[in-house]
Design goal:
CATH class of the largest domain: Mainly Alpha
Keywords: Cell membrane, Membrane, Transmembrane, Transmembrane helix
Radius of gyration: 30 Å
Pfam family, one: MMPL
Subcellular location: Cell membrane
CATH superfamily of the largest domain: Multidrug efflux transporter AcrB transmembrane domain
InterPro entries: MMPL_dom (IPR004869), Mycobact_MmpL (IPR050545), SSD (IPR000731)
Structural class: alpha+beta
Membrane topology: Multi-pass membrane protein
Helix content: 55-70%
Largest sheet: 7 strands, antiparallel
């Protein structure tokens, strides 16, 4: 029987630090496992508190014009954009009936007296503007401003305020809505989506792993490694929380990536362990060989994924930076699980992970690689055309604004917003605010603004204007002070269509004095502009860093270039899928979401970084097998065929499980979560099949010896 202790002859094989580290893990396996258990328990304690410390970060651009405008409004006029709204419906009659008006005024005053509320106004207290009254007269709005950060508003004020006010009265029915309430409902639904998906994924992943490994222990250990990665990742996040804010949505990425990467990395190591045993090595040498070869691949893979996510630090948004922290943390957890803990497990119970019988080596992938390399232009050309066709919907990408329609139809805040969207002529709660430290006659300026397409009304100290005509008296108390400001109320159609263009149109009008443009539409415009402006930097960093990682692994300048081009094709297919499905609305009935004709910029940027990193994950694994064979034989075609034969089955299995992990989120209630799940599943499947099985061998055959330029064939003899 093979022992788990390294023999004297094995010490002569120790030529690399990773191999020596593998033998160390074998000798100290009990200590390693004890420390791993202690680490898991401690990390579990920290992870339990991490979720409660995550913040409800807003989509905002710090330092932008809209951000400065909000600061000026609060400092000089004690006001700002409404944080939420209450939709008030008359149980009988209209909102203009005397009894309903009296009840509405009393309700407005009661909201204003609630703790945390700085400002409350309504149709009845603002002189009955048409923008706060539904066209049929049955509904009116109460607008509320709640100062403070998102955690204060959504976690402290709204949970107390909303249930109290929505009780309504004998004459009034009251429902809550507005951006803050929509976001407050989104967070718990997104958490439910991920927890429900994970409950489905765990048993399915076990079944798939068992079908691939044919041993229960070999199927269970990778799942436990995924759990280890998730728990350790959350524990690391709890430490990061001491220094910065992290969005609560980072928890979702931790859960999604943790299981997938943990399984992937462990499969790489277990597969190599089995190969080493099959080649006649004892268990200690097999573990050391697995750490040396598969461990090196896993480390490069983890570095690639982490580097891809780290470029999000180049964006000045806490929301997106949160995903960088989460991704790097969960990659660290996966690396510890696969390179440190798993070898100790293999040294202890590795025999239970070996196949019960030696199966003949699969020849399908070897034969496929040889067929592709005999006609590389045909196969490579057809694969490229297919991928370009699948990616073509991306050409119609339109960035827009996320709203309540990311929620399911039964969500209460969405139902409120649907009534407002259909029944009100304008969106007073989402007005564009023009703030100035100077004051003077603004009548002409307000009149010009009111004639702009998409503007329903302009309110100012000089009066209210619609289509260039003064339709109401000015409100000096509201608009005049240490300067002046104007409220440009967009029409419902403009806000639902392209509010960013409306902001640009308003900013293009020459003011009588210097103004800052703020309000919700301007905030979205500045946020989107900041992302788009920095997108070239993000892409350059992502491509540059991953190029460097692949160069360090292969010592080739050509292989990283080809890998980058293939990953761009994979990303194109992913973006084509999310545009076709979520922007254009195909499959909306099946998936149960409401398309808006645009995509919010934040989620695609996040998916870009995650998908690119995961694509490089499989590229690193396959290239490492090809490079190892090329170093041994110097035959490029044989290296590709053998590398594909040994690597493709594992890549397909790992890719299928990771795709399943993401695809489970297609059943989510929140459209953002569905988009992440569907897009990532498509990217992983395309990458693990067409890219690796067809494009890799065809391009490597076409490049020939140039693949390894400038390094050429390694001179180190194979062991």
């Amino acid at each position: 029987m093979k022992t788990v202790t390294a023999t004297m002859t094995a010490t002569r094989e120790v030529t690399t630090p990773l191999r020596r580290f593998g033998y160390l893990l074998v000798r100290r396996r009990r200590l390693v496992l004890s420390l791993a258990l202690a680490l898991l328990i401690g990390a579990g304690v920290l992870a339990a508190g991490a979720a409660s410390g995550l913040s409800l970060a807003r989509f905002e651009a710090p330092g932008s014009e809209s951000d400065r405008a909000q600061a000026e409004l609060a400092e000089r006029f004690g006001t700002g954009s409404p944080d939420m709204i209450f939709l008030v419906t008359a149980r009988s009659g209209t909102v203009d009936d005397p009894a309903v008006e009296a009840a509405g005024r009393e309700l407005t005053e009661r909201v204003g007296r609630e703790e945390g509320v700085a400002e409350s106004a309504s149709y009845w207290t603002r002189g009955r503007p048409a923008t706060l009254r539904s066209q049929d007269g049955r509904h009116a709005l109460v607008v509320v401003r709640i100062p403070g950060d998102a955690d204060h508003v959504r976690a402290e004020v709204l949970p107390r305020l909303v249930p109290e006010i929505t009780k309504g009265t004998e004459l009034l029915q009251v429902r809550a809505g507005g951006g803050e309430e929509v976001f407050r409902e989104t967070v718990p639904l997104a958490r439910q989506d991920f927890v429900r998906a994970e409950l489905v994924i765990f048993p399915l992943a076990f079944v798939l792993l068992w079908l691939y490994q044919r041993r229960a222990m070999a199927a269970l250990v990778p799942i436990l490694a995924g759990v280890f990665a998730m728990v350790l990742g959350l524990a690391i996040l709890s430490g990061v929380l001491l220094f910065t804010e992290i969005s609560t949505f980072a928890l979702n990425l931790t859960l999604a990536m943790g299981l997938g990467l943990g399984i992937d990395y462990c499969l790489f190591v277990i597969q190599r362990f089995r190969e080493e045993i099959g080649n006649g090595a004892d268990r200690a040498s097999a573990v050391a060989g697995a750490v040396e070869h598969a461990g090196r691949t896993v480390l490069f893979s983890g570095l690639t994924v982490a580097s891809s996510l780290a470029v999000l630090f180049a964006l000045p948004f806490d929301f997106l930076r949160s995903f960088a922290y989460a991704g790097i943390a969960v990659v660290a957890g996966g690396l510890v699980a696969a390179v440190v803990v798993l070898p100790a497990v293999l040294a202890t119970v590795g025999g239970t992970m070996l196949p019960k019988r030696v199966r003949p080596e699969r020849t399908f992938w070897h034969g496929l690689a040889m067929r592709v390399m005999r006609r590389p232009l045909v196969f490579g050309g057809l694969a490229t055309v297919l991928l370009l066709v699948l990616a073509s919907p991306f050409l119609g990408l339109r960035f827009g604004v996320a709203d309540d329609r990311i929620l399911p139809l039964e969500a209460s805040s969405r139902q409120t917003q649907e009534v407002i969207r259909q029944s009100f002529p304008a969106e007073e709660t989402d007005a564009i605010q023009l703030v100035s430290r100077q004051s003077g006659d603004v009548s002409r300026y307000a009149s010009v603004l009111s004639r702009l397409p998409g503007v329903a009304q302009v309110d100012s100290a000089a009066g209210s204007y619609a289509e260039g005509t003064r339709v109401g008296d000015g409100d000096l108390a509201r608009f005049q002070g240490r300067g002046t400001w104007l409220s440009v109320v967009p029409s419902a159609e403009a806000l639902a269509g392209d509010p960013v263009r409306l902001v640009e149109t308003v900013r293009a009008v020459k003011p009588p004095f210097e103004v800052l443009v703020g309000g919700y539409p301007a905030e979205l415009s500045d946020y989107r502009a900041s992302i788009v402006d920095r997108l070239p930097l993000v892409l350059a960093l992502m491509l540059g860093v991953t190029f460097l990682v692949l160069f360090l692994m292969t010592r080739s300048l050509i292989l990283p270039v080809k890998a980058t081009l293939m990953n761009v094709l994979s990303l194109g297919v992913m973006f084509g899928a999310i545009v076709w499905v979520f922007q254009d609305g195909n499959l909306s009935g099946l998936l149960g979401f409401t398309p808006t004709g645009t995509l919010d910029a934040s989620i695609p940027i996040l998916m870009l970084c995650v998908a690119y990193g995961l694509s490089m994950d499989y590229e690193v694994f396959l290239l490492s097998r090809i490079k190892e064979e090329y170093d041994r034989t110097g035959d490029a075609e044989t290296a590709v065929a053998v590398g594909l034969q040994r690597g493709a089955p594992l890549i397909t299995a790992a890719g299928g499980i990771l795709a399943l992990t993401f695809a489970a989120y297609a059943t989510a209630q929140v459209m953002f979560v569905q988009m992440l799940g569907v897009g990532m599943a498509v990217a992983v499947l395309v990458d693990a099949t067409v890219i690796r099985a067809v494009l890799v061998p065809s391009l490597m055959r076409l490049a020939g010896p140039l693949n390894w330029w400038p390094r050429g064939r390694a001179t180190t003899p194979a062991r």
